[in-house]
Amino acid sequence: MNLGIENRKQLIWLAALFGTALLLVAYEFWPTSSSAPVSATTASSGPAKPGMRRTASGKLVPVAETRLDPTLDLTQLSKSEDIKYAGNGRNIFVAGSVAIIETPKGNGTAPREEDAGIRQPPPVPPPPPINLKFFGFANQPGETKKVFLSQGEDIFIAAEGDIVDRRYRVLHISATAVDVEDVLNNHRQSLPLTQG
To answer: Which residue spans within 102-186 are E strands per DSSP?
Structure first.
């Protein structure tokens, strides 16, 4: 049987992997001579002492261990026995006990002396007027009625329901005026027909 060089290399690798796996399985299940369990302290014993740890530079420093003692500390218990509850006169364990409530000073409607210097916020200014001008119609038979509106040098052609200048909605077109709403300020205004 004539095997190529690549096939031989693959067989050698396969044999090596199989041998390693066989050794690992034998090591895992082979009985040991010591039957005593290994304690955690002997397994982790090394150069570090208990209560010590190594820093990044390799120096041993003591570890501050918290006290985890489950026994009852009688000195702490005797200190807490001397504390007397003073309370405010209300017993939460008795039904109908009345709490002591401080009576309010005044009826709450009259301004207090310290509030006299507080100023009220200024009133909300009215919305700015709509600065469009209505100057004509664009009527074609069979089409919806459209109007010409101008703002400075800009001219807009709009029908009812259209938005002009990304801000004004044309609500209603009549023969003498156009009703327009400023959608940003929720303000309506009627623009009369101007002669120009």
So the answer is: 133-138, 146-151, 154-159, 163-164, 168-173, 177-182
pLDDT at 100: 60
Distance, CA of 167 to CA of 184 (rounded, Å): 6
HSE value, Cβ hemisphere, 13 Å, CA-based, for 153: 0
Residue 19 CA to residue 10 CA, distance in Å, equals: 14
The answer to whether residues 152 and 135 touch, using CB atoms and an 8 Å cutoff, is no
The H-assigned helical ranges of 40-175 are: 40-43, 74-81
Torsion of CA 104, 105, 110, 111, to 10 degrees: -110
- Asked if residues 165 and 181 have their Cβ atoms less than 8 Å apart, the reply is no
Q: Which helix (H) or strand (E) holds 53?
A: strand 52-54
Q: pLDDT digit string (tens) for 24-75? A: 888 888 776 554 454 444 444 455 556 777 888 888 888 776 666 778 888 8
Identity at 46, one-letter amino acid code:
G
Distances (CA, A) of 1 to 9, 15, 80, 104: 16, 18, 92, 110
Contact 156, 148 (CB under 8 A): yes
Q: Which residues contact 186 (CB under 8 A, 6 or more apart)?
A: 127
